[in-house]
Amino acid sequence: MFATDSHIPEVAVVILSWNGRRQLADFLPSVCRSTYPRLKIYLADNASTDDTVAFVRRAFPDVHCLLNDRNYGFAEGYNVALRRVQATYYVLLNQDVEVEPGWLEPMIAFMEQHPQVAACQPKLRSYLQRDYFEYAGAAGGWLDALGYPFCRGRLFYTLEKDVGQYDDPVYLFWASGAALCIRAEVFHAAGGFYAGFFAHMEEIDLCWRLQRMGYRIGYCPRSVVYHLGGGSLPQGNPQKTYLNYRNNLMMMARNLSRAERWRRIPFRMLLDLLSIVYGMAHRTPAEMLAILKAHRDFIRWYRKNRRALPRQAVPLCELQGYYPGSVIWQYFAKRKKFFSNLPIKTRLIALNLQDQ
């Protein structure tokens, strides 16, 4: 895979945790069994109030512990921790991810073979339904014309069974933060995650910025991991709803040109409000209120930050993994439940994986 041992890049697997003792007990053993030769595993603890750090130090003495002084959230928590980690590649891994044996080697070989790729993700399957893709990343992320993220293998809450239909390594719009392999130098050059998100959408925003910088985002299906998901904020939690809606609007404002912002964001906000009406039979009052609060706080954020937002930006239509239509329309109106059913005319660019 590599010419000599001296050519093997250093890899740091960094697991951000907050009060994650129970999940780390279940999932960290598989990570510690990784066979990659130049690997260090780090626990980045976000000021846990339980005995997470003491447990890891006792049960996994080879894991290096990085102690953040407070709970910075996902985005800034990683930024603070990674300033203290030296490696060629970072692999940011959720605390509820189980990895297959030999999971790292294909991703690092993938990155070494494709210098234009700044970040990639493995195939994410469900920990509870192991033959199915997992919500948080599946076989790689896309984005539609109104900023709705979706995945190959997952449209909204419809998860596909993995029968090899997405075993082609391709370019993506975004790679999942549940298991994100990224060049360390590029992560810092891009400014890391945007701290204002706290959690959710930070990896999509980062991947969008990386594409604007001229890099590509890739998918490495030869690496397989299993994600439990919903460990910190489960689906239906009003705080999760709030962060997803607010952060999605912030992400669009941070990456679109001024002309595209004025064309896309108001229509997106209208759809958000319509989703409240549609969701009256499905959402709790707290969830619907969370959407309104998300809009309010986005407007406040926009007023404060509008002068720093880009006037010009790479058009969405020029980015890989962009779907020019509406995934909402295709899923709910036309009943297209699988990624392969979408009328995508853009040719998926398959990447050559020789010698892996």
From TrEMBL:
Record's protein name: Glycosyltransferase 2-like domain-containing protein
The keyword Transcription regulation belongs to this UniProt entry's keyword annotation: no
Gene3D superfamilies: Spore Coat Polysaccharide Biosynthesis Protein SpsA, Chain A (3.90.550.10)
Record keywords, A-Z: Glycosyltransferase, Transferase
Start and end residues of each Glycosyltransferase 2-like domain: 13-125
Keyword DNA-binding (UniProt): no
Transmembrane feature ranges: none
CDD domains: GT_2_like_c (cd04186)
Family that this chain belongs to: Belongs to the glycosyltransferase 2 family.
Matching Pfam families: Glycos_transf_2
Record PANTHER family: GALACTOFURANOSYLTRANSFERASE GLFT2, RHAMNOSYLTRANSFERASE WBBL
Organism: Thermoflavifilum thermophilum
Signal peptide: none
Gene Ontology molecular-function annotations: glycosyltransferase activity
